[in-house]
């Protein structure tokens, strides 16, 4: 059993006290605004902070969890044991080269990357401009929208291995699938990802981004806390349509509700607990399966429910 008090002190010495939070509520770091405390949260400023944090955490016998903006995550009300490394503003550098490549540190947001691409006259990342979260999450989940996905543009990912070695994983070795990548199984930390785009007209790129943002705002409950699409798309169906046809729009458990704007979203109406959300997910899945014989699998990642 790791000595968490000593571990927190070791991390503070290496990264600075301001970059190590103890018993930090995960509700402050997820778009659901839900989640109990994690024992230790680390917020790195630069690659050396990530490397040093990884070394210290591994030496204590623990495997760190990694988040970006927590946009596809449900954390239990009891919280999390161990350490979470949050890739945020301190590790979000975006670099554009002369060959249509953009290399992004794990904490760079999809919105910022799309904006940087537009400013450089590069097209191909417009689809992700409204996807909440970071490039780390996009790579992890193979995020997608509007019939495009991260795998279509990524050329390679750079990762930190448990022993501290840095490795490059080419696109063909990333095991991309629907909302899946190698990162889900590999015990590594994504450091950065490089995407390759194409030359385009900045005005046309901006116009497409504006159009996609308007479409998203008109159809999705962006004004309420959620984790985005709650369920994966079942083969041959659309989850939101199945849920709406089961007359579940607005169905609620506690403070968790099937969105009245888009049935594929579960939203936090203000006081939802993780238990509320989990029960609602299970209820919706059960009702849809009974009615249509279609199994709905959650897309949202769930942490802390088995601890």
List keywords for this structure.
alpha+beta; single chain; 4-stranded mixed sheet; 25% strand
Kindly estimate the percentage of residues that lie in beta strands according to DSSP. Answer: 25-35%
What is the count of helical runs?
7
End-to-end distance: 15 Å
Described by the principal axes of the CA atoms, the overall outline is globular
Average per-residue pLDDT, rounded, comes to 96
Give the tally of β-strands.
19
The strand line-up of the biggest sheet is: 6-7-13-11-12
Supply the helix-strand structural class: alpha+beta
Biggest pleated-sheet summary = 5 strands, antiparallel
- Give, in order, the helices and strands: HEEHEEEEEHEHEEEEEEHEHEEEHE
C-alpha Rg (nearest Å): 20 Å
Helix content range: 25-40%
* Unreliable residue stretches: none
């Amino acid at each position: 059993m790791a000595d968490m008090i000593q571990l927190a002190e070791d991390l503070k010495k290496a990264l600075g006290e301001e970059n190590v939070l103890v018993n930090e509520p995960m509700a402050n770091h997820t778009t659901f605004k839900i989640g109990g405390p994690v024992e230790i949260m680390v917020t790195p400023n630069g690659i050396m902070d990530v490397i040093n944090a990884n070394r210290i955490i591994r030496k204590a016998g623990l495997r760190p969890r990694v988040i970006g903006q927590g946009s596809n995550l449900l954390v239990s009300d009891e919280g999390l044991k161990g350490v979470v490394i949050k890739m945020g503003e301190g590790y979000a550098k975006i670099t554009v080269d002369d060959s249509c490549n953009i290399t992004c540190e794990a904490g760079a947001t999809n919105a910022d990357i799309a904006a940087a691409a537009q400013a450089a006259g590069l097209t191909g990342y417009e689809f992700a401009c409204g996807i909440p979260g970071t490039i780390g999450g996009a790579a992890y989940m193979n995020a997608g929208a509007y019939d495009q996905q991260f795998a279509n543009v990524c050329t390679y990912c750079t990762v930190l291995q448990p022993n501290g070695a840095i490795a490059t994983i080419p696109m063909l070795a990333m095991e991309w699938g629907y909302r899946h990548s190698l990162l889900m199984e590999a015990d590594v930390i994504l450091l950065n990802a490089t995407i390759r785009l194409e030359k385009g007209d900045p005005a046309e790129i901006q116009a497409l981004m504006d159009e996609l943002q308007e479409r998203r705002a008109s159809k999705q409950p962006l004004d309420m806390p959620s984790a985005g699409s709650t369920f994966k798309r079942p083969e041959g169906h659309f989850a939101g349509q199945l849920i709406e046809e089961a007359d579940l729009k607005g169905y609620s458990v506690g403070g968790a509700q099937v969105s009245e704007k888009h049935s594929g979203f579960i939203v936090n109406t203000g006081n939802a607990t993780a238990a509320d959300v989990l029960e609602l997910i299970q209820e919706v899945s059960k009702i849809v399966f009974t009615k249509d014989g279609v199994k709905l699998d959650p897309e949202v990642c769930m942490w802390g429910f088995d601890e």
